[in-house]
């Protein structure tokens, strides 16, 4: 045999699949996680947290929820202070902006391959769609899991800061709120409606500008941490879900292969009575042919 004619060409390297993220995918990540999960979430979170924690109509309910949570926590941890319950619900309030963004983020992730492919065409990136589709797809459940992880991380960090640098943390919040008021030439406090013991009265309350600054001081960290965990944690959970799905699919395939193969039942008209017992004509005929051939 002529070896010169049998020399095989080396396999073409998968250059397109081996390189990193395409331009479209990088832009997608910036828009979804830097934009929706970052800037837009921050813009939504500050007023939502103000409404839940500072607005005079809702504040009594927030305080009542803190008291109720504190009573429940002290049954398990008697030494737990009310501040811990307040921090837990404050963290929950800070998470609501990001929770609202889960729907558009989940939609974007569901259509990621199509969106990124379109962006690649616009940006002149020739990355094949197959590379985009290979990455595990984020789902609503993977995003929810990452939000739960973010809540734990933000709450633990705030509690740690309260324990280690309580004065610094309070000073930071107050300073940001005060500087916001100075910048916008607004007062720090004003006379406003207050509900005390179920009765509506008036008293000194923080202005919206001061409260927004105070909330923003915490939410800058909370949103940055949550957006990072949404990207990293969400993709981690998505990979885990993809692995479990693949294992289940392999298990189902293995069970189908291991299942006994049953002969097709013959029509009743094909059954004949032989020596008082019903026999399958097709099987008998097949056995007879094999005997003749042997």
Provide the residue-averaged pLDDT: 82
Count structural domains: 1
Q: Identify the strand order in the major beta sheet.
A: 1-2
The number of helical segments is: 11
User: End-to-end span in angstroms?
Assistant: 40 Å
Structural class: mainly alpha
Strand residue content: 5-15%
Shape type: globular
Total beta-strand segments: 4
Q: Main β-sheet: number of strands, strand sense, barrel status?
A: 2 strands, antiparallel
- Spans of at least 5 consecutive residues with low confidence: 11-18, 269-280
Structural Rg? 33 Å
Report the helical percentage. over 70%
Helix and strand element order: HHHHHHHHHEEHEEH
Provide structural commentary.
The structure is a single chain. It is built from eleven helices and four strands; from the N terminus they run H-H-H-H-H-H-H-H-H-E-E-H-E-E-H. It has 294 residues and is mainly α. The chain has one domain (21-245). The strands form two sheets. Strands 1-2 form a two-stranded antiparallel sheet. Strands 3-4 form a two-stranded antiparallel sheet. The longest helix has 51 residues, at 208-258. It is globular. The protein starts with 14 loop residues before the first helix and ends with a helix. Mean pLDDT is 82; it is low at 11-18 and 269-280.
Short summary:
The protein is mainly α and 294 residues long. It has helices at 15-18, 23-53, 59-76, 82-100, 102-110, 112-123, 129-134, 140-164, 166-184, 208-258, 281-293, and strands at residues 189-196, 199-206, 271-274, 277-280.
